[in-house]
Structures are given as structure tokens and as C-alpha cells.
Amino acid sequence: MRKYYVITSGSAIHESLLGIESGITDNVELYYPSFKITNSLLKAVFYVCFSNRFSWLFSWINKNAWFAYHVLEYIDFDDNYENIVVLAPGLKIDREINKEYLIKFKTERKCKFVLLLFDSLDFKSNGGWNSISDCFDIFDVVMTFDDNDAQKYGINHFSLPLDICANEGQRDIQTDLFFVGYNKKRSHLIENLYDRACMNGLKCDFNVIDRKKAVLSFFLKNKDIYKTRRICYRQVLKQIMQSNCILEVLCEGQKTSSLRYLEAVILNKKIITNNKNVKAMPLYNEEYVRYFEKIDDIDFDWIKTRENIDFNYQNEFSVRHLFDRLDRILDRN
Fold this sequence. Notes:
By secondary structure, the chain is α/β, with parallel strands linked by helices. It contains 11 helices and 12 strands. It is globular.
């Protein structure tokens, strides 16, 4: 028997794995965030130490010292199980993963390590994300949500998990098109699409998380779409339920769909996406899913049209499928 300890500091990853907390899986525990720092001043120093802009202020602090606060130090392993630590890091790898610390911990505690990648390896990011492949050797299993990365790097693939109730919070449609997500170098396309949608009479609910642009929004043309902080996931679901169609815009280097596609299927919403591989996605239905390469490809009248949507979803995205697959991989190793 195995017991899994899943650790992440990625907020969107945490949302994807929330089914664990609702008891859908057996012998799986979810820990968020990855570091347990209770002192508010110390927590502030921690985040500054790993920030892209201000880390130089505390460059004299050995970053390895922070791993004394890693949640692994607070977990009591169950000796009746084979203990598996599952790390699902966000983009800041230099904050999430330290090879020296993990190798020492793995040796002393005699556990296995699994790495779950929820971002495409080709996405250009600060924080060491593009060197994550240098850490593969310390993990017993490496898995990615990106089909292309799985083939390119010879690692295992998993389907994004999501557990939400399709009937919870049904509401009247109030907007035509909904978007939420961090900027991640895609604001130009999102701004232009927002402009075109408004010109075509669509009522849009766009939420682009970019603190700098939100602060300077007075000087921007599309000032209303930028937000200083992310929206809680319960609110995201509420806004999706109130919208007729979801917009998915992939990040640079990403070649497979995000949670937006899963939400569309589970909640029976139309979706437009620039994922050229969308036809290969589970439960794809051309009546409810539209691909666009450029804005001129978009049928705005289709977005506005109210229809009865039914993807016939039967829990295909549940998080328990992820751990069933992980069990099979570990059995083979």
C-alpha cells in the first residue's frame, strides 16, 4: 500500500488538486503552500528573497536555509505504507526545489519522489523554470501535463485533474465571454481580442492578473481588464457560470489546454481557444469548442448565441485518475 503526500505552492495547481481535500482519493494528502512560515515578518523576507525584482536585498541569506521551513519537515510518514512525496512546483523552481536538500531528505527518510509538471517546459520564465530538467534525476517518476513535453523529454504524461460540481452555483447568463489568467506575455493578444469582442457587441468579463499594469491602468487603453491580484477560485467558478463562453489563450511555449478547457467541459460552457491541438482533448465537441489562430477567425455571433450545452461529462477529469495512473507507473518501476 502507498501513501501520497502532495506538495505545491502554485495556486492554480492547488485548485486543480482540490479534489484530494474533498476525500475523492484514498491515502493522499495535499499540502499548500510548500513552506510553513508562521511569522509574518519572516514570511515577507522569504518572498522578497525569491522575488525577481528585490531578491538582491537579501542576497547575503543562503537560500538553502529556508528549506528548514519546508512542509516536509512537518509531515509524519506512516510506516505502514510506502511513502511517496509528490512535488508539484510552480514556476519559481529556485524556491520550490533544492537538489541537495531533497537528496538528503530522500536518503534519510527512505521515501520515493514524484515530480508533477503543470507548466510547459518551453515557457520562458524567471525563477529557474527552464532548468527544471536538471532535477529529473532525483525523482523516481517525472510526469507532465504537456503531451509534447512528454514525447520530447521522454517523460510520463498525465491529464490535468479537476473536481468541481457541474450543478453547483448555476446562474443566469450575464456576460458573453470570460477570461481569467496571469499576463504571462500574452496581454497584446488578449487586449486586441477584448477590443474586437466589444466592437462586435459582446459583454466581456476579462481578468488579466498583472499588478504593474493594474497600477498603471489609468494610462492604459484597456484599463478595466487588469487586476492587481488573482481572484479566488470560488469566484472564478461563479463568473464562469454567469458567462456564455470561456476564452482560453495559451502561454508562450504551451501546447496543451489549461484548466479553462476542463471547466468548459464540466460546467457545460462554450470555449474558444488558440490551442491548435484542442481536437485531441478528451470530450472534444466541435459544436461547443472553437479554435482560432488569429482574431479574424473568431465567430463572435457564435459566442453570443445562447444554446443548451452538454459535453456528457462522466468524471473523466477526476484527480483519482491521476493517482491510479501513478500507481501503475510505480508498479512497473
